[in-house]
Amino acid sequence: MRKGKVVIILIVVALAAGAGYRVFTLITEKKRGSERSDAAAVIVKTAPVEKGTIRRDINLTGDVEALTSVQLFPKCPGRLLEPAEKDLQTARKLYEQGVISRQPPDRIEDMEEGDSVEKDQIIAVVDHENLDAQVEQADAALKTAQAQVTQAQVNLAQTENDVKRMRNLFSQDATSKQSLDKIEAQYKSLVEQENVAKARLEQSQAALNQARIQLAECFISASISGIVSEKYLERGDMAMVTRPIFAIIDIHEVKVAADLPERYIAQVGKGAGASIEVDAFPGRIFKGTVTRISPTVNIVNRTAELEITVANRNHDLKPGMFARLRMRLEEREGVPVIREATVLRDESGEYVFVVEKEVARRREVKLGLEEGPRVEVLEGLKPGEMLVTAGQQKLAEGQRVEMHN
């Protein structure tokens, strides 16, 4: 019981001592402030705290790439030809037969890098002499099969009349059952022969169609509209199915590929805007839109691949160009904004000085977004207050100031 009283007495003494020290500190600070007020005024510059707009952007670098790029491989091996009139006639015939989707031009130009091409335009021809012969052979086989079907149908019609006549005679007891059975069996045999002939006709038609398709594959056409970016073979070279002849790119739109740091992934989404600059057009800004963000992060550099699509109707942006990107993460309007250089720091945190009735007052501040030399103030300042912008390093709380703006 006695120990408990001692503890209580000690606590009361400690609290009294603390309160006394606090009172002493306040009196001392007040005295010092009074002394500072009486001291010579410190010359400072001030400016009112203003409302403004502040943004947080990220800067990335990337490479311009074609939005669509294809390589054209031949489907049949052979020597690349200098197209002659007979080759054009073959192509026109295939077009009329519906095997080639685009009408052949009057002349097949020798394409070079930088030339424009249209989808399904014939841009190269592989030697097709053997396939011409196969088409002719398949066509002859089809005609033979058609003749066989015609002959089978004629024979079947004649026999069908004979069957009708024999059945009529049999009903009148003018012929034997054996004769009727014989002519009916002959009719059934001819029906089977007609079916076989029709099947051969279908096979012959399929073989001809296949031969025409193989022949059409010798006429190499562009799979997209665009520009020839690479030419790998010249006329007279041997084309192989494993080696491309041309590369074609479509750059009416391009994409800029960049690496997005992991810490920004949650703040950038599809549809976000981006400003792009390239060295070829100093000062010009190209606008783009985020169309793809990789679902995985590279474990080596902790970035996700980002693709931005940019309209490029005049083909100003070329694949391979180095690009600088700026993307906006945040934007705040109508907030207190000050210059970062006016902010002081010590062990207690960040603070500034404002002037109230020619006296310096220290204000603890909480800062937000930064944009260049400017910084957002979240707490501690209001618009219109007179902020010390020069000479604040010499100030202390309560010191008299003289403003020279």
Question: Can you walk through the features of this model?
Answer:
With 405 residues, this protein is α+β, with helices and mostly antiparallel strands. The protein has four domains: 35-54 and 333-403, conserved putative lor/sdh protein from methanococcus maripaludis s2 fold (Beta Barrel), CATH 2.40.420.20; 58-63 and 250-331, Efflux pump adaptor protein, beta barrel domain (Elongation Factor Tu (Ef-tu), domain 3, Beta Barrel), CATH 2.40.30; 75-128 and 218-244, no CATH class; 130-215, Helix Hairpins. Helix content is 33%, strand content 35%. The strands form five sheets. A six-stranded antiparallel barrel has the order 2-9-12-11-10-13. The chain has a three-stranded mixed beta sheet with strand order 19-1-20, with no helix packed on it. Strand 15 and strand 16 form a beta hairpin. The chain is elongated, with a radius of gyration of 46 Å. The model is unreliable at 1-7, 9-14 and 17-37 (pLDDT under 50).
Short description:
Helix content is 33%, strand content 35%. With 405 residues, the protein is an alpha+beta fold.
Distance between the termini: 70 Å
Q: Report strand %.
A: 35-45%
Tell me roughly what share of residues is in helical segments: 25-40%
Main β-sheet, spatial strand arrangement: 2-9-12-11-10-13
